[in-house]
Amino acid sequence: MKESYSIYDLLEQIQKRPAMYIGSFELERIILYLAGYRHAMMEQGVRDESTPDFSGFHEFVRDKFQFPGSSMGWPNLILAKTMGLNPQDVTWENYNQGVTPELHKEAVLEFFRLIDEYRCTEVNDPTETETRI
Predict the structure, then answer these.
(1) Using CA atoms, how far apart are residues 48 and 22, in angstroms rounded to an integer?
(2) What is the C-alpha separation between 65 and 17, in angstroms, rounded?
(3) Could you report the per-residue pLDDT of 21-65, keeping only the tens digit for each?
(4) Using an 8 Å Cβ cutoff, are 7 and 30 in contact?
C-alpha cells in the first residue's frame, strides 16, 4: 500500500487521458474526482505530500485573475475568466448558463496551464492547512 501521494501525479494522469478519468471536459468533474480521490487516500491513511500544497491553488487563481476576495472556488474563477467575464463585476448567480462544451474544454486546458504555473511558484504558506478542493 502507498504511504504517500502527490495530487500533481494524479493531475498529470488526468491531463493525459481526461476522458478516462472525468468523462467530459468540465472543471466541476475534476474537482469532484479530486475530492473523491483525496477522501479515499485520507481514509486509508495515505499522506498527501504535494509540493506546493494544493490548498493554495484557489488563492493563486484568485490573485492571478484579480478576483476581489472571491470564495467561489477555483473552478468558477477559471470558467468565468475563460468566458471573458470581468473579475471586478461578475454576477455569480447563473453566470455559467449557456456555457458551450468548447468553453468548458478551454477552461480545463487553462486549469492545466495554471497548475503548471502554480507548481513553479512559491506563493504558498507551508503552515496553511485549509484544503479547498
Answers:
(1) 21
(2) 27
(3) 999 999 999 999 999 999 999 999 998 888 888 989 999 999 999
(4) no
Are 16 and 32 a contacting pair, CB within 8 Å? no
Residues contacting 131, CB < 8 A, separation 6+: 38, 54, 55
For 37-76, the DSSP string reads HHHHHHHTT-EE--SS-GGGHHHHHHHHHT-SS--S-HHH
Measure the N-to-C terminal CA separation of the chain; round to a whole number of Å: 24
Distance set, CA 27 to CA 3, 73, 104, 113 (Å) = 28, 11, 7, 13
- Give me the residues paired with residue 47 across strands: 4
SS3 5: strand
CA 36 to chain centroid, in Å, comes to 14
* pTM for the predicted model, two decimal places: 0.84
Contact status, residue 128 vs residue 57, Cβ threshold 8 Å: no
